[in-house]
# Entry
Amino acid sequence: MKKRVAIIGSGVSGLACARELVQQGHEVTLFEKSRGPGGRMPTRWLNRDVEPPLGFDHGTQYFQASTPAFVQLVEQAQKAQAVAPWAGTVVNLGYGFSSPHNSTTTRWVGTPGMASLGRFMAHGLDIRLQCRVAGMARMDGAYQLTIHLGDGTVRVESGFDAVVCAVPAEQVVPLFDEIHKPLASLASGVQSNVTWSVMLTPREAVKVDFDGAFVVDSPLGWICRDSSKPGRAVGDRWMLQATADWSRLHQDYAADEVGKMLLDVFCNVTGQLIEGPLTLTAHRWLYSLPSNPVGMPCYFSEESMLGACGDWLNGARVEDAFLSGHTLGHQLSNAFDSTLIQ
# Structure
């Protein structure tokens, strides 16, 4: 028998959970507070009217795949031209030195932007955008959600047999503190890192012999020639990502100030002088990667028919988030089946 499931959040884990449930014949509705699916795998578009469109991957920089379920998804996405391998040269970089950063695993990116993987996973799913779930209640065995819409109105959706939460740990706590304390308590012990990301377009190409670098002993942890990724518009565009420690110390600084500070660091570490950049935009991720994931695939209470998935449970990689949602979708489907048998 078809069951109705509400999923709060449409990042990779929420989408993976939804895909598994829909495949098993259930009716799934995802509620997403932002303007698009994909969570922290977005693309900041500067111009979508050109081909290929012009933008920045200002969240996740790349991902890797090793487990059968995720490898299968990536292969499907590649056939749909939603992802492609990135063969950019990656190094370890410090002040005055660099060394190769070798990896035996393919680095994948969305094409023409990182957001493409989320859009591929979201195809065919019922996703309600700009809908923030502000509360929930269970009455007569069914869940009712209170939803704040982007236009300022409030709506109530009811009749859900189960609810899945696929948002950062800090957002789980207020949602579940009254309705399911075990989950709220579990999430309260997890802390997400703050991360500042800077989108840089210099007037002239930066003359270095690498496309990405893990920076050591620096306020910057990662720099990347974003335009070197497949399917990107021509030009020279860079992503600069600060370390978690530096971002935490400067989390309340103005974005313009952060951009200038990290541009100075970028110039120092690359030995390049960049004056009057065409774009210099900083974005603060308040809930970036979890610093202390729980270390369990997902959370599920069959008694309450409530679950949670995401990188705060299973690990910080994109693949970890996918596997968390995929596993929870499987567990929830099995629980529905066992209920029918009983």
Q: What stands out?
A: The first helix runs from residue 12 to 23. Residues 1-42+115-189+294-342 form a domain with the FAD/NAD(P)-binding domain fold (CATH 3.50.50.60).
